[in-house]
Amino acid sequence: MLRYMHRSGFQPFSQRLLPRVQSVAVPRSHGVQPSAVRHVRSWSNIPFITVPLSRAHGKPFAHRSELKHAKRIVVKLGSAVVTRGDECGLALGRLASIVEQVSVLQNQGREMMLVTSGAVAFGKQRLRHEILLSQSVRQALHSGQNQLKEMAVPVLEARACAAAGQSGLMALYEAMFTQYSICAAQILVTNLDFHDEQKRRNLNGTLHELLRMNIVPIVNTNDAVVPPAEPNSDLQGVNVISVKDNDSLAARLAVEMKTDLLIVLSDVEGLFDSPPGSDDAKLIDIFYPGDQQSVTFGTKSRVGLGGMEAKVKAALWALQGGTSVVIANGTHPKVSGHVITDIVEGKKVGTFFSEVKPAGPTVEQQGEMARSGGRMLATLEPEQRAEIIHHLADLLTDQREEILLANKKDLEEAEGRLATPLLKRLSLSTSKLNSLAIGLRQIAASSQDSVGRVLRRTRIAKNLELEQVTVPIGVLLVIFESRPDCLPQVAALAIASGNGLLLKGGKEAAHSNRILHRLTQEALSIHGVKDAIQLVNTREEVEDLCRLDKIIDLIIPRGSSQLVRDIQKAAKGIPVMGHSEGICHMYVDSEASVDKVTRLVRDSKCEYPAACNALETLLIHRDLLRTPVFDQIIDMLRVEQVKIHAGPKFASYLTFSPSEVKSLRIEYGDLEVCIEVVDSVQEAIDHIHKYGSSHTDVIVTENEKTAEFFLQHVDSACVFWNASTRFSDGYRFGLGAEVGISTSRIHARGPVGLEGLLTTKWLLRGQDHVVSDFSEHGSLKYLHENLPVPQRNFS
């Protein structure tokens, strides 16, 4: 190990070579003297960490979200992770990625240690090469022929391979870590090193000294001399674990060094309740001590000494010793490049071992409950679903005082933390609750003919009839911010459409959401379907929820454009319904009515500026500049204290213009508006298509021909003539309520009400019909006759 003597002690050689490396003092917490200084390095001028990492070791972390506070971390790389598929040689790309992640965490001020396999595989590759080369030389000398016979490679003894591979493996790690200005040191251990008290103290002291000098220890069992493992010697009480493989070594090292987190990387996603690959195998998100009986272990991995059972035993031993553990996949090409950093960031990766069981069900269990409850909900009679919604509407008015009291708590806690527009969204009132109740009753009335409605009937052949009927989508995940009134709206739509529902509200509305969800479940209980709607109260991050593609069928975000974009980015294999921006335009034509314009602009911009259907850009025909129409618009905006941003063309007409807009594609969400000038209706349409978000766009004109041209050519979800943008709303459309406004071009578009939460299935009724009967020489012919669709009669 290359080090040089500094006046204050030893320093890694690489720090002397890199003058751009900076040092920041960080307090220590793991058995090091208070005077010791921890060096946190940064590249260029960007520090990796701005706050010290400090945690007193004791109990393991209770929740994944706490893993970001882990300071001392052991990463165990299984044989399947570091070796190639042919078990001869190392997976260099995978190793490079792991080294990069460890280096990033090390440079954040954490103390990283590696327990690595790979010496046997690396040595096997070297020895096979040497043996083949030696055989080819001997064969050439003895045969005198240019063509060599096929040579068999003898079975190589593992300890010999380890002896030949250790130096090469360490040299490889050293070269990789050097790229990140980090030094590494190799430590080879055997079981005796932990059982001999003096050797234990020496090992502990060496490791602490290496960590103090910002060096990454790379630990491995000394496979060149280690004896075969004794059977049934894994666990010998709390203080002793037999080091028979790198799993047990990593656990022993983690506890010995009072490590915060042990990450065990293998070739499977984590711990499954049955062998991975079996039909019913489910990944266990959180594993608790005592759950072993619920798990069926399979065979061990293709290489290495330990299987999953050995990993679980080692993990539980480490957990008992105060170290948190995560078992995850380090070989999958899509995740291996960030698996370690994802775990430390608290993302739902692999299986997390915890001693603290949650009070309620996990989000996966809630999803299953919602699916089961949703299926029961869909089988109810339409009148029963309507009765549930009517009961919920009554509860909103009957329990208004309790609801408003909970909402008051949310507002008091949010004061000073949320912007004014968000506080308005968070606020509930008696009038809001009354409007909600009216909307819910509208949904109940419209739900009578929703689920099971026949859309099409076709006679395929004699006694073979096909129907297309409406059915629920399945399980919906609705994520909403600062909008507690969203909960009963969405719940009513889910009930009417027979869908299971997972709700994830913002922390700022926790009190309001809790009581509204309780009232929703009270209403559902009248027909025994309480579980159909679940409120997610666990610490699940939104990004983790978006990965539950086996549970969730559709995600609907309700919130800021940033929230929608984040969810669209995070969703893996789950459709997302929504719009990322609400950049609504109003084009004031040269033939616009003076009386109508100011009313429409005021209502669109000032009535509720935080709404996604509020006006953001006002396009004015050039002929209206310096006319009474234009003057009245500007005067009204000033009276309403609306800040005006000038578009480039509008600014060019003014001597003293308002601040020129930075972008023509901005959703202000406040009392601000962009004004731009256009020469024609076609230019207005072109501007909308270039800078709009396909949400809602309006034309103000008395010319019907111009209006119809605008209505037909603007490609947005909602296009209006002489009407406020604020009409783009499910309640105002008569849908009762909406789960959101979609700018998507597939499935549902615009305000999404009850119809948008339904899909279809096909029902075919026959009598022993087979396709071969319809072949060229078959006895039957296709008829494909359209049949009348039965009409439901609801009195």
From TrEMBL:
Its main location: mitochondrion. GO terms for molecular function: ATP binding; glutamate 5-kinase activity; glutamate-5-semialdehyde dehydrogenase activity; identical protein binding. Gene3D superfamilies: Acetylglutamate kinase-like, Aldehyde Dehydrogenase, Chain A, domain 1, Aldehyde Dehydrogenase, Chain A, domain 2. InterPro entries: AceGlu_kinase-like_sf, Ald_DH/histidinol_DH, Ald_DH_C, Ald_DH_N, Aldehyde_DH_dom, Asp/Glu/Uridylate_kinase, G-glutamylP_reductase_CS, G5K_ProBA. SUPFAM superfamilies: ALDH-like, Carbamate kinase-like. One of its GO terms (cellular component) is mitochondrial matrix. It comes from the Eukaryota. It is found in: Mitochondrion matrix. Keywords: Amino-acid biosynthesis, ATP-binding, Kinase, Mitochondrion, Multifunctional enzyme, NADP, Nucleotide-binding, Oxidoreductase, Proline biosynthesis, Transferase. The keyword Transmembrane does not apply. Its EC number is 2.7.2.11, 1.2.1.41. Residues 71-329 form the Aspartate/glutamate/uridylate kinase domain. It catalyses: L-glutamate + ATP = L-glutamyl 5-phosphate + ADP; L-glutamate 5-semialdehyde + phosphate + NADP(+) = L-glutamyl 5-phosphate + NADPH + H(+). Residues 363-625 form the Aldehyde dehydrogenase domain. One of its GO terms (biological process) is L-proline biosynthetic process. Pathway: Amino-acid biosynthesis; L-proline biosynthesis; L-glutamate 5-semialdehyde from L-glutamate: step 2/2; Amino-acid biosynthesis; L-proline biosynthesis; L-glutamate 5-semialdehyde from L-glutamate: step 1/2. In the C-terminal section; belongs to the gamma-glutamyl phosphate reductase family. In the N-terminal section; belongs to the glutamate 5-kinase family. Can form homodimers/multimers. Bifunctional enzyme that converts glutamate to glutamate 5-semialdehyde, an intermediate in the biosynthesis of proline, ornithine and arginine. This is Delta-1-pyrroline-5-carboxylate synthase.
